[in-house]
């Protein structure tokens, strides 16, 4: 891949939609940084579909700009069907959380059944979408959460309620695997592991276009060739110029960056220490 394959575009924020919830504290911190720097360092990554731009990565940045009354945003557009783009899932590891209170809250929720199962049954149910999540407790007990309604927006509603039941109670970390024994060995204070299903791109599109959102920190998009450190002045996004004028400027800017070799592609994974 090289810089000429990048697709950067300035679009109206009114046409940008999210598929996941945001964390208000994170957005507030971003607003402070944006006001101080007056630069958008990294563009949100989106998939274009039905005249909308679905945010795959960058929900907090998008929301921060909207709350700052920014008219437009620069985005990196990717092909959601490209083989290099992978949609995976984060699971939520809970440490020192009041599991009994959380469990009581889940059992009291409307539209969902809590069923005790084996690990194998839970894995199969989640893969076949017979359940919408798995709860694995530190004591070895496993439960499937089964929705009474097959509609995806209803699943999202329930999952948001489930996450709200443990959010802010104990410590929560995102993990990519489901090895409880390993987590107990590494952390010792494991209360529970919440395992979410692996979604498909068409489901993400459906949620975003219908105005439904998954909890934050569930979907994990692996996207090669991310554009970082573009450092676009907010004044460009805030100006009253037309999108055509702004994108003409952006094309000239990008061409100059490439011609003067200010854009580099790193084939290997890298660590960033100024996020």
Which key terms come to mind for this protein?
single chain; 275 residues; Conserved hypothetical protein from pyrococcus furiosus pfu- 392566-001, ParB domain; Conserved hypothetical protein from pyrococcus furiosus pfu- 392566-001, domain 2; five-stranded mixed β-sheet; 9 helices
Mean pLDDT: 91
Order of helices and strands: EEHEEEHEEEHEHEEHEHEHEEHH
Number of domains: 2
Low-confidence stretches: none
Largest sheet: 6 strands, antiparallel
- What would CATH call the architecture of the largest domain? Alpha-Beta Complex
The tally of helices reads: 9
Q: Helix content range of the residues, please?
A: 25-40%
What class, by secondary structure content? alpha+beta
Which value, in Å, is the CA radius of gyration? 21 Å
What is the CATH class designation of the largest domain?
A: Alpha Beta
The 3D shape can be described as: elongated
The proportion of strand residues reads 25-35%
CATH homologous superfamily classification of the largest domain: Conserved hypothetical protein from pyrococcus furiosus pfu- 392566-001, ParB domain
Which fold name corresponds to the CATH topology of the largest domain?
Answer: Conserved hypothetical protein from pyrococcus furiosus pfu- 392566-001, ParB domain
């Amino acid at each position: 891949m090289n810089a000429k394959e990048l697709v950067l575009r300035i679009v109206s924020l009114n046409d940008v939609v999210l598929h996941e919830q945001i964390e208000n504290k994170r957005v507030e911190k971003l607003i402070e940084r944006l006001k101080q720097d007056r630069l958008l360092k990294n563009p949100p990554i989106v998939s274009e579909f039905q005249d909308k731009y679905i945010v795959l990565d960058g929900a907090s940045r998008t929301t921060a700009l909207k709350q700052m009354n920014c008219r437009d945003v620069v985005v990196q557009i990717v092909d959601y069907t490209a083989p290099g783009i992978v949609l995976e899932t984060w699971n939520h590891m809970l440490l020192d959380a009041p599991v009994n209170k959380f469990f009581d809250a889940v059992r009291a929720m409307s539209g969902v059944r809590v069923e005790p199962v084996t690990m194998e049954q839970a894995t199969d149910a989640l893969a076949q979408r017979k359940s919408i999540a798995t709860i694995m407790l530190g004591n070895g007990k496993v439960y499937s959460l089964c929705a009474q309604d097959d509609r995806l927006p209803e699943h999202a509603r329930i999952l948001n309620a489930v996450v709200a039941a443990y959010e802010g109670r104990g410590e929560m970390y995102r993990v990519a695997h489901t090895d409880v024994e390993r987590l107990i060995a590494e952390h010792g204070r494991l209360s529970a592991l919440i395992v979410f299903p692996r979604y498909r791109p068409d489901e993400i599109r459906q949620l975003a276009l219908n105005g439904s959102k998954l909890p934050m920190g569930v979907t994990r998009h692996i996207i090669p060739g991310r554009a970082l450190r573009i450092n676009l002045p907010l004044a460009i996004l805030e100006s009253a110029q037309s999108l055509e004028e702004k994108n003409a400027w952006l094309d000239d800017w990008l061409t100059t960056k490439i011609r003067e070799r200010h854009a580099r592609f790193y084939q290997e994974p890298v660590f960033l220490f100024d996020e």
